């Protein structure tokens, strides 16, 4: 873990992710996440967004609509 100082001079820990990797491409791949739980969608969006353009849908129908919009 790597520690970072907070404004109050307390230290917080963050997981060590290793050396910075150069991007493979200047473009992000799109990733569609479908789940009916909003908290799962939010968590996956936060976790995956550094690497992907994350699209979310709360149902199969909403996912189909996203596909139609992006064609």
Jot down its keywords.
71 residues; alpha+beta; two-stranded parallel sheet; 4 strands; 28% strand; disordered N terminus
Assembly context of the chains? single chain
Question: Which structural class should the secondary elements be placed in?
Answer: alpha+beta
Mean pLDDT: 79
Task: Write the H/E string, N to C.
Answer: EEEHEH
Strand line-up of the largest beta sheet: 1-2
The N- and C-terminal alpha carbons lie at a distance of 42 Å
Envelope shape:
flat
**For the CA atoms, what is the radius of gyration?**
17 Å
State the major sheet. 2 strands, antiparallel
Give the tally of β-strands. 4
Strand content: 25-35%
Pick out the low-confidence regions.
Answer: 1-12
What count of helical segments does DSSP give?
Answer: 2
Helix % is 25-40%
Please provide a written account of the structure.
The protein has 71 residues and is an alpha+beta fold. 31% of the residues lie in helices and 28% in strands. The chain contains two helices and four strands, in the order βββαβα. It has a two-stranded antiparallel ribbon with strand order 1-2.
């Amino acid at each position: 873990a790597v520690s970072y100082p907070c404004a109050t001079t307390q230290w917080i820990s963050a997981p060590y992710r290793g050396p910075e990797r150069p991007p493979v491409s200047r473009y992000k791949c799109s990733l569609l996440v479908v789940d009916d739980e909003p908290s799962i969608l939010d968590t996956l969006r936060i976790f995956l967004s550094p690497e992907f353009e994350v699209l979310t849908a709360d149902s199969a129908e909403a996912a189909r609509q996203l596909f139609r919009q992006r064609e």
